[in-house]
């Protein structure tokens, strides 16, 4: 069965103007998000040009793919997305354990929607982490770790997050999209901005994190 | 015991780690010849002056007098949990309870060792257990191989970042800084 992601999504794809859209992973993220919201068990297969089929078994929170995540094809062209209903007592979609689905959702979320908000994230919300992703298993940089430390401690908008972490809005948005797709992000339309202690540039440079990071070459 | 704290300090330390081990009399708990009986000590030198001092403390209850010493002085703690333990979540919560003050000011990161070889609790289950102890706190929980320097550095950086971020938002007490 082939799904039309626009129909399954139930909402028009909301793409910010001024950002180029990577259709491949954006449509894949939309399909995955739609499936994650379904109450019935579903398997999903993605056909990706120049790569083997990507199989997702949502019931076991696992995926199977011949392409390692370390070589994640950012500009992949998807030639098809198919879903297959399954049941609670059906055999797994592929031989388990497969790979942890969170790793794929992380890469997918980071590399979809072209730096703009995922369609399911309306404007005006603040976000906070429900739990940290397992950074041991997800390729990340220090600015992403810093953003997660912010999100782990307070509710922020994407713009506030970017300011606090010293990154571009698009980079903050990519992280928000990924964490939301992984379903480890709490959303609130009413949470207020947290008070922030004033921090001088000198203090930032002298922070233990800055000095340790420099020492460790990170 | 057996979570890898001596190995973790060796991975991070820039000096040869001072180890204090004795023969392991509890081979039924952790099948290794020796175990930490006092403190392991290592260092990371910053800027050629200040140091990050790393202490590995034994996990057995009979050494809790050492815990009391470090509770007051430590800025943060990496709690290594052996996924192969009989009840790793319960063990984690026991230590969280012992170091409650440090935990409540966000000075803890949990590293689950041997998670790739043992089919133990999921990270979500560890996080949910922690959330029940303090719903306002979100503590990093990572799988970790204590032999891997990159992974241990990641854990250490996450700990330091979390502590500093909480201070930025005014969540840490003045006495802890």
Question: What is this structure, in a nutshell?
Answer:
The complex is a heterodimer of chains A (218) and B (177). Chain A is α+β, with helices and mostly antiparallel strands and 218 residues long.
Fold and architecture overview:
The complex is a heterodimer of chains A (218) and B (177). Chain A has 218 residues and is an alpha+beta fold. Chain A has 2 domains: 5-115, no CATH class; 126-210, Arc Repressor Mutant, subunit A, CATH 1.10.10.10. Chain A has 8 helices and 7 strands; from the N terminus they run ααβββββαβαααβαα. Chain A has a 5-stranded antiparallel β-sheet. Chain A has a two-stranded antiparallel sheet with strand order 6-7. In chain A, α3 (101-110) runs antiparallel to α6 (169-181) and α4 (142-151) crosses α5. The longest helix of chain A is centred in the first third of the chain and has 15 residues, at 23-37. In chain B, the strands form 3 sheets. In chain B, strands 5-6-7 form a 3-stranded parallel β-sheet, with helices on both faces. A two-stranded antiparallel ribbon of chain B has the order 1-2. In chain B, a hairpin with a 5-residue loop joins β3 and β4. The model of chain B is unreliable at 173-177 (pLDDT under 50). Helices cover 37% and strands 19% of the residues of chain B. With 177 residues, chain B is α/β, with parallel strands linked by helices. Chain B has one domain (5-171): P-loop containing nucleotide triphosphate hydrolases (Rossmann fold, 3-Layer(aba) Sandwich), CATH 3.40.50.300. Classes of the chains: A alpha+beta (218), B alpha/beta (177). The A-B interface holds A 128-132, 134-137, 142, 145-146, 148-150, 152-154, 164, 194-197, 199, 207-209, 211-213, 215-216, 218 and B 44-47, 50, 52, 75, 106, 123-124, 127, 131, 138-144, 151, 153-154, 156-158, 160-162, 164-171.
